Here is the input.
Amino acid sequence: MATQLLKTVSDTPAVPADDRIRLAGLGRKEIAAHLTALEDDLKIEPKKVRMRTKQIFHWIYNYGVTEWDAMTNIAKPLREKLAQHFTLARPEIVERLISTDGTRKYLIRMAPGIEVESVFIPDVSKTGALCVSSQVGCTLTCNFCHTGTQRLVRNLTSQEIVLQVLIARDDLGEWPTTQENRRLTNIVFMGMGEPLYNTDAVGDSLDTICDGEGLGIGRRRITVSTSGVVPEIGPMGERTKAMLAISLHAANDDLRTQIMPINKKYPLAELMQACRDYPGLNNSRRITFEYVMLKGVNDSPKHAKQLIKLLRGIPAKVNLIPFNPWPGTDYVCSDWETIETFADMVNAAGYASPIRTPRGRDIFAACGQLKSESEKLRASVKRKAALANGTPADTDA
Ligand code: SAH
Ligand code: SF4
Here is the structure.
């Protein structure tokens, strides 16, 4: 794997501290509520709030504007008033890394101490997918996952989820939405955190991301991945109409409980039933089962047979993920031959079973590597800077 970084920059100027309300990332209802709350000062008649909301929404999400003055169908005096109260600025991008394979990782500071990562992966589904985070940290402790070693800081808001998409669109230069040959076409909730422990924000964020007058990403191009929060799977499907991915990783309860403690609470029988009941499931809307290949743990032909049996009758495809190592883990990635044998068996049973090429490993952007590695990277950058300045490095990052 090449380790050369093409670029390590944080070239987006920090947004100065600002008391204004950030409208970028908000949904229609929230924008309307803000306009209504200030209607006396803005001098927007109540019956015009909806129309103004529609205009602003379109400018933010179709054109990606960040300046009020760009909104040419809104008269100048109102634009000036809006600019006094509201900002369209993005949060600060603390770090933006581009891998030799084209993967882009953004470390975004949503608020003091609230930093999240999102990763743009080119060449997925013919175009490209943005992997977004739903929480800072995770309450779950899957023991092969680096994010799982970090406590939950907090859930992200719907706005903070949508902002990850806006930032990637900005960076890829893909405004307006009508632009042809966009690369950011798909969204996967496979970044930090468990999206099904933050279903309200995830659901609301989809309403904005999928809105046809805005970002316009189809619901079937959005995949929500869960470690198996069974009671939330059906309601999430009803609410979002998104595609479902299950982090399965083991096809028997003993092993799964050992590597994913959530399996104790929601064992495989319940999880598979929730999958069978997933709204809209059919052969063109299959569930993706993610299966991380851990050497000597879950990768033998016996395990492949268990998996095939478990999936029987479910429209499914299996994503085999080579384990991405991180400092301190005892797990090792399965040998390539072992992975191929496993894939061949699952494939022969009638399930597509692509082996996911690790992307962005050189920038710590691969599955399960998010957040802590970037903290480490930033710590080393800090140390270098401190050495250059002759000052002691703070080591809290
Ligand atoms: N919490 C959700 C969303 C995160 S998705 C979930 O678990 O589904 C991130 C995916 O990467 C999950 O399938 C996760 O199990 C997998 N993963 C975690 N650590 C990994 C690692 N070190 N190597 C490869 N895949 C990993
Ligand atoms: Fe959390 Fe998913 Fe990692 Fe498990 S795999 S610790 S649920 S982020």
About this structure: The radius of gyration is 22 Å. Residues 157 and 201 are 5 Å apart (CA to CA). Residues 1-15, 372-386, 388-397 have pLDDT under 50 and may be disordered.
